[in-house]
Amino acid sequence: MLSSLLEKITGKDDLERVACKEDPQKLNVYLQTRRLLFPKRPRRMLDANEFTQEELLALLEEDARELASDERELWILDVDGQKRLPAFSSEKKLQTFAARVSQDLNKVFGAGYVEVLMSDVVQGADVDFIDLNLFSERSWEIGVR
Predict the structure, then answer these.
(1) Which phi-psi region, left, alpha or beta, contains residue 122 (left: φ > 0; alpha: ψ -120 to 50)?
(2) 85 bridge partner residues
(3) In angstroms, rounded to a whole number, what is the distance separating the alpha carbons of residues 23 and 20?
């Protein structure tokens, strides 16, 4: 309750309030207990112009069900030769990312995610950086290696 009230007042969620202090040690300690949302790699990217609205909706619903039910791989982005894993503090931030990617690529896709601690993901993923709240008003880059 207090957390949502603070978010309405400050415009920042709990994780953003910690990250804004620009204290890597405090952020690292906080991230040991704060679960994040990591997007799963989309099953496919679709050109919306190639389908009727009903066909597209059916395909996206099918993809969303599959993404929710299995352990698909995380969506690791390759940017300038660096492996970057987006992570989000809320579904709203994740939706902002998905909408931006969809718009930039002019494709639509079913979106899915896993909610886990960053330490659990870093141990099993080959990434250089975690991009926290990518494409949001404020984002952070966390070096992994």
Answers:
(1) alpha
(2) 130
(3) 8
Distance CA 110, CA 101 (A): 12
CA distance 73 to 39: 9
Domain ranges of the chain: 35-143
Taking only the tens place, the pLDDT of each residue in 102-129 is 999 999 988 889 999 999 988 878 899 9
- CA separation for the pair 88, 73 (Å, rounded): 16
User: What is the spatial distance between Cα 129 and Cα 143, in angstroms, rounded to a whole number?
Assistant: 5
Determine the straight-line distance between the first and last CA of the chain, rounded to whole angstroms.
36
Helix ranges (H only) for 32-90 are 53-69
**Sequence letter at residue 4:** S
Residues 6+ apart with CB under 8 A from 5: none
* pLDDT tens digit sequence for 18-50: 999 999 999 999 999 999 999 999 888 999 889
Tokens of 14: 């709990």
Sheet of strand 140-143: strand arrangement:
77-79, 82-87, 129-132, 140-143
CB 104 within 8 A of CB 97: no
